[in-house]
Amino acid sequence: MAKVKVATAWLDCCSGCHMSFLDLDEALIGLADKIEILASPITDIKKFTPVDVGIIEGSVSNEHDEEVAKDLRANCKILMVWGDCACFGGINSMRNLFSIEDTLHRYYSTESTAQDSKIPTSEDIPPLIPVKPVNQVVKVDCYVPGCPPSPKAIHYALAELLEGRVPVLPSEIMRFD
After folding, report:
1. What is the pTM (predicted TM-score) of this model?
2. DSSP H helical segments within the chain, as ranges?
3. How many CB atoms neighbour CB 161 within 10 A?
4. Residue 6 is inside which H or E element, if any?
5. Segment 47-60, tens digit of pLDDT
6. Rounded (5°) CA angle 150-54-153
7. Which residues 6+ apart lie within 8 Å of 81 measured at CB?
8. Domain residue spans of the chain
9. Tens-digit pLDDT profile for residues 114-153
10. Which fold has domain 4-95+128-165?
11. Which of 17, 75, 93, 98 is the residue whose CA sits 20 to 30 A from 43?
């Protein structure tokens, strides 16, 4: 049987969801027989190629994040999101309480920065937008919430997909033990 092709991306987040994936430990060996990861945060892939499953961690908080989410969605049959940032906007969405200008000013021109500090422009960094969950940008097929989701929840969701089912996580799996 052909392996399921997977691509993952992280947007605005701490990378804790991918760390939970790695915390599957020996279960990763079993998954390696069934999935082939074509793109991940550790590869230098600029554009995605067609895959069976796309996975996004993190919220959408700048124009580049939007492009990545749209590109992965266009190249996957099923899109799964991991973590509260991707599912709900997460703690990153607290930035929405402030204007983009105030955010950039506070980040780049604070008491601890040099007097000649420069606030970057869209030539320097991707333009910021209000923070939003992935489903406000593209269609999402499967949600694995948590901050981060437990390795057990990620494994359950992946195992369900490998069996041809869109996972619906039971409540008892949605917490750390």
Report:
1. 0.91
2. 16-22, 27-32, 63-74, 83-88, 100-108, 151-162
3. 22
4. strand 4-10
5. 899 999 999 999 99
6. 15
7. 55, 56, 57, 87, 133, 134, 135, 140, 142, 143, 144
8. 4-95+128-165
9. 666 677 777 888 999 999 999 999 999 999 999 999 999 9
10. Rossmann fold (3.40.50)
11. 93
